[in-house]
Amino acid sequence: PSSYARVVRHLLTGCAICREQLRATGWEESRLDRIFQRPIRELTPAEESRLAALQKYDYDGAFAGAQRSLSAFFAPEAAPPRPIESMMAELLALPEGEQDRLKGRFAYPEMVRRLVEKSHASRYEDPGTMHHLARLAQLVADACTVEKAGSPERLSDLRARAWGSYGNSLRIYGELVQAEEALTKAQHYREAGTGDPPLHARLLEFWASLRTFQGHFESAIALDREAGAIYEQLGETHNLASTMVQGAIAALYAGETESAVRTLNRAIPLIEPEEDPHILLAACHNL
User: Of 5, 69, 100, 230, which is most buried, counting CB atoms within 10 Å of its CB?
Assistant: First the structure.
């Protein structure tokens, strides 16, 4: 702890900008002085050596990397040339062969997101439509360019989202080998992307569902917990509840009935029925 205090003091006291920012948030000079001048015990030679190494560390590279990541994440994307619903209607009216051939005309990030949303919305009522729309999203995302996406990282995120949706639709169709291949591709794209946490959590959910279908229940439970931890950090309680329900179902298949019941009882109060009534139905049914 004392070494940590020295590092904090080193980073803050030498930076007039940091001190000014703290002062601007309402911190009094006396409080700043207490932090910067708080006495600490003498350090051991090993601790002094580690501190000396930290004091010599060049943080420019780390800050530059953070700046690059932020620039990539917030890079503006190209807007569609006309209203997205008009473009969507034109695309869906084309024969399937024409949709594939002309996909470049519709290759805009907003089109990909809208196709993914429509695919997800039809997952219960019409799995065929879900699969078709997810496949279109994947084709359009692959045809999209860096210029339209805004940055290479954002393009990778876009393709990860589309390939994840496509992989999940293959899982629902029972094509488990192809689903794993698609999700693996989505994962590679995500790793090359911006590090967007909700996208990471969504792909973890898709992997968990696939592992459940494959009978790897313990793996599915662990993946759902990992996704749930991300949603909890983001404050997305409904999505957290969804991962808990998925994990509970995997636990039921694994024969862990008592654990599943506890999880479902914790999940149900977190569900927002108006957002997705099917999750509440699934939770109550399995309970």
Answer: 230
